[in-house]
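Look over both lines:
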Amino acid sequence: MKYSSNRRARLGFLAVIAVTAFIIAPRGWSDETAPYKRMLDDPLEFTGPSLGTPTDEIRIGLFSPPPESGSLARGLISGAILAASEANDANPCRSFRIMRRWADDPWSGGAREIVRLIYDDGVLALVGSTGSAETHLLEQIALKAFVPVIAPLSTDETLNQTRVPWIFRLPPGEDRIAQILIQGLNGCETVGLAYSTRHDARSAAEAMRKALAHTQKSIAFEAVVTDDPASIKRAIADVLEFKPDAVWTCLPDERRDELLRESYRKGAECRWLLPWKADRAMPEWFHPTGGAITVDWPPLSECESSGNAAFAARYQKRFHEAPNRAAMLGYDAVRLIVEGVRAGGVTRSVLRERIAGLNDFTGVSGAIRWDNGGSNIGSDPVVKINVPFKD
């Protein structure tokens, strides 16, 4: 009798659960906007590195802001388009097509656009982006989707330190850049640091701190410049108050120019150190008393050499302006993919292997050779430039 009562109680409890589940079960999407993807809409497939269908059209994804956003994006896009166009002219039987996408918020909209490049546009490889944070996003998605990525503009060494086999980085790393800049500190004992809150700037500042730690030089101040106009005024005040022998700065061009101009106008006599940027140019008006050091890679003078003069002429003819460093690196990034495809890389995994094997490649930016992490060590990456001292 006791057994039957317990059994009835359990059956009643299960019935209550079933009724409750039916009442609260969702009837559909309340949001008017349908989701981009539902989990089981399509049959489960393995899209790993061993699969891929060769096609006559090779699509190359470019994650970059639009060309009107500035010279950095404009050069990157133009260089990539020129490389693809020349590849098509050389072999009309297989065409290369640049597919560009972008979103201003990389960690939400940007991730969606990269996924669409891979799965909707069907790109074989990715190129990008203009900043290290956006390039990290490319790396994370490529790692899951098994897509090779070439980073033409990022100096962030952490992209390659995790040994992700799908990413290749063209520019010199921040540690190397900092080591070169420190060579210009002869006679300087104190150094001020002024940088923005962007990922690129914070990473470069950390590399500079590490490089300075191996010297007898001390950090006079650190000024973090935000979007608040008052923060750049505080940085100028720090330069004037602490009177460092040198100031290293990594800021957007407008803020950098304001710091240089106002500090110089108010009598600062320090030396200035500027890290590498693909479109960074020293202002023509800037001739500081203490001089200035920057890095020049790839040297724009390379475009005047016999091997690259033709590239510069073709670029000028098509886009009606001289190529900048971003154009040279975007051009080389796409050329690496083209050469990888011509070497048999018609699937993503084989293309990655072919790009990794291009260790005797010479681009308009110089020799390209990969270390075991996918960083370019093909040529001496930086050249020290001394801006003439003011009389």
Remarks:
- The mean pLDDT is 84.
- The chain has two domains: 57-172+305-368, 175-296.
